[in-house]
Amino acid sequence: MTLHTTSTLESSARRLFPDKSLDRILAELLLERAQKNLIKYQTMARQFREKYDKEFAIFRQEVLKSVPGFELEQDYFDWELAETGIKDMEEEIQRLRKLV
Protein backbone atom coordinates (compact mmCIF):
# COMPACT_ATOMS: atom_id res chain seq x y z
CA MET A 1 0.00 0.00 0.00
CA THR A 2 1.28 3.43 -0.80
CA LEU A 3 1.55 6.22 1.73
CA HIS A 4 -1.22 8.10 -0.08
CA THR A 5 -3.56 5.10 0.09
CA THR A 6 -2.84 4.58 3.77
CA SER A 7 -3.41 8.25 4.48
CA THR A 8 -6.71 8.26 2.58
CA LEU A 9 -7.93 5.14 4.39
CA GLU A 10 -6.97 6.54 7.77
CA SER A 11 -8.69 9.85 6.99
CA SER A 12 -11.88 8.08 5.88
CA ALA A 13 -11.86 5.80 8.90
CA ARG A 14 -11.54 8.72 11.29
CA ARG A 15 -14.33 10.59 9.51
CA LEU A 16 -16.70 7.61 9.44
CA PHE A 17 -15.87 6.37 12.93
CA PRO A 18 -15.09 9.42 15.05
CA ASP A 19 -13.70 8.80 18.53
CA LYS A 20 -12.59 5.23 17.76
CA SER A 21 -9.08 3.88 17.39
CA LEU A 22 -7.98 2.42 14.08
CA ASP A 23 -7.69 -1.00 15.74
CA ARG A 24 -11.27 -0.78 16.99
CA ILE A 25 -12.50 0.37 13.58
CA LEU A 26 -10.81 -2.55 11.88
CA ALA A 27 -12.15 -5.02 14.46
CA GLU A 28 -15.71 -3.69 14.01
CA LEU A 29 -15.49 -3.88 10.22
CA LEU A 30 -14.12 -7.42 10.38
CA LEU A 31 -16.86 -8.41 12.83
CA GLU A 32 -19.49 -6.99 10.49
CA ARG A 33 -18.03 -8.97 7.56
CA ALA A 34 -17.92 -12.18 9.60
CA GLN A 35 -21.57 -11.70 10.60
CA LYS A 36 -22.57 -11.20 6.96
CA ASN A 37 -20.65 -14.33 5.97
CA LEU A 38 -22.35 -16.27 8.77
CA ILE A 39 -25.77 -15.25 7.48
CA LYS A 40 -24.78 -16.28 3.94
CA TYR A 41 -23.63 -19.73 5.11
CA GLN A 42 -26.66 -20.21 7.35
CA THR A 43 -28.92 -19.37 4.43
CA MET A 44 -27.15 -21.87 2.19
CA ALA A 45 -27.42 -24.61 4.83
CA ARG A 46 -31.12 -23.86 5.44
CA GLN A 47 -31.84 -24.09 1.71
CA PHE A 48 -30.17 -27.50 1.51
CA ARG A 49 -32.01 -28.73 4.63
CA GLU A 50 -35.28 -27.69 3.01
CA LYS A 51 -34.35 -29.17 -0.37
CA TYR A 52 -33.39 -32.57 1.05
CA ASP A 53 -35.59 -32.47 4.19
CA LYS A 54 -32.78 -33.70 6.43
CA GLU A 55 -29.77 -32.56 8.40
CA PHE A 56 -26.33 -32.48 6.82
CA ALA A 57 -24.93 -35.39 8.87
CA ILE A 58 -27.62 -37.74 7.54
CA PHE A 59 -27.28 -36.39 3.99
CA ARG A 60 -23.51 -36.85 4.19
CA GLN A 61 -23.80 -40.49 5.24
CA GLU A 62 -26.24 -41.21 2.41
CA VAL A 63 -24.03 -39.53 -0.19
CA LEU A 64 -20.88 -41.29 0.99
CA LYS A 65 -22.63 -44.68 0.77
CA SER A 66 -23.81 -44.06 -2.79
CA VAL A 67 -22.49 -43.14 -6.19
CA PRO A 68 -23.97 -39.65 -6.44
CA GLY A 69 -24.79 -37.92 -9.68
CA PHE A 70 -23.25 -34.58 -10.55
CA GLU A 71 -25.96 -32.40 -8.95
CA LEU A 72 -26.06 -34.43 -5.74
CA GLU A 73 -22.29 -34.39 -5.47
CA GLN A 74 -22.17 -30.64 -6.10
CA ASP A 75 -24.86 -30.06 -3.45
CA TYR A 76 -22.85 -32.19 -1.03
CA PHE A 77 -19.73 -30.08 -1.53
CA ASP A 78 -21.66 -26.81 -1.35
CA TRP A 79 -23.53 -27.88 1.77
CA GLU A 80 -20.30 -29.04 3.40
CA LEU A 81 -18.79 -25.64 2.56
CA ALA A 82 -21.77 -23.95 4.21
CA GLU A 83 -21.50 -26.08 7.36
CA THR A 84 -17.75 -25.47 7.60
CA GLY A 85 -18.28 -21.77 6.94
CA ILE A 86 -20.83 -21.55 9.77
CA LYS A 87 -18.39 -23.03 12.26
CA ASP A 88 -15.52 -20.87 11.05
CA MET A 89 -17.55 -17.66 11.16
CA GLU A 90 -18.96 -18.44 14.61
CA GLU A 91 -15.40 -18.88 15.91
CA GLU A 92 -14.25 -15.71 14.15
CA ILE A 93 -17.16 -13.72 15.59
CA GLN A 94 -16.33 -14.91 19.09
CA ARG A 95 -12.68 -13.84 18.65
CA LEU A 96 -13.60 -10.45 17.23
CA ARG A 97 -16.25 -9.72 19.87
CA LYS A 98 -13.50 -9.90 22.48
CA LEU A 99 -11.80 -6.99 20.70
CA VAL A 100 -14.88 -4.84 20.20
Main beta-sheet strand count, sense and barrel state = none
SSE pattern, N- to C-terminal? HHHH
Shape: elongated
Name the quaternary structure: single chain
E-strand count? 0
Q: Bin the strand percentage.
A: under 5%
Summed up, the helix count is 4
Low-confidence parts, pLDDT < 50 over ≥5 residues? Answer: none
| Distance between the first and last residues' Cα | 26 Å
SSE class: mainly alpha
* Domain tally: 1
What would you report as the Rg, rounded to the nearest angstrom?
A: 20 Å
Mean pLDDT: 96
Helix content: over 70%
Describe this structure in words.
This protein has 100 residues and is mainly α. The protein has one domain. Helices cover 84% and strands 0% of the residues. It has four helices and no strands. Helix 2 (22-52) packs antiparallel against helix 4 and helix 3 (56-64) runs antiparallel to helix 4 (70-99). The protein starts with a helix and ends with a helix. The model has no long low-confidence stretch (mean pLDDT 96).
Describe the structure concisely for a colleague.
By secondary structure, the chain is mainly α.
What labels would you give this structure?
100 residues, mainly alpha, 4 helices, 84% helix, elongated
Which SSEs are present, and which pair or pack?
Elements: H1 3-16, H2 22-52, H3 56-64, H4 70-99
Helix pairs in contact: 2-4, 3-4
